[in-house]
Design goal:
Structural class: alpha+beta
Number of helices: 5
Shape: globular
Largest sheet: 6 strands, antiparallel
Radius of gyration: 17 Å
Strand content: 15-25%
Helix content: 10-25%
Oligomer: single chain
Number of strands: 9
Order of helices and strands: HHHEEEEEEEHHEE
Length: 219
Amino acid sequence: MNRRALLAAAAATILTGPACSVFAADASGRPTVAEKPFVTAVSADLTERFATIDAARKAGYFRYTDEDDTGAISYANLKWTSTDQRHPSQLWYDAKGRLIGCDFSVPYTSERPKMFGLETSRWQKFGAHVHYGLMGPGGTTVYGATGAKAMAKVGASVDHPTADALVAAGIAKKKSDVLFVFTFPAIWDVSMWVIPNSDGAFADKNPDVKPVNAKEMPM
């Protein structure tokens, strides 16, 4: 399940807070004439500055998902307010370590953002939830996510997730197995491919990106 579908399903089922909006008005994902300068500038800038995963890590981004069925592996910096077009909240790399896309976000409010010259319909809203990484076999990381209902059952909340809460919820066996846990807050988000995409920079998938070992995020 890709990023958009995953978060849409999460917001519509297990999460509290704002429900997920529909995708951008242009179903093809192709940028408008007014949006093309943004797409061109962002693609060039991010491709230069974050050409490698190491560059992303040095800038504070860390991996928090498995590869999804778009071929994207997501990295976040936990800064959910993209103050300008040089500061995406997320970067996506493929299985070979190539930068392929990004997300820009701002905290959720009742009105869609008017930013970067983008159509307001590009922005999608997602409810708050929790992401975590658990110690897996052979030094691997098991990535996952959970929602408000699971946290509430053990007296915790998505706003303040802890390793103890994951253990109480039966997600982790012991506290030391939790490598990281964080709140993915309620946001407005726009996703964009930074590599060429015949379906458009804002399309859900890119036909030129082939997943290697896609997994669905457990919820």
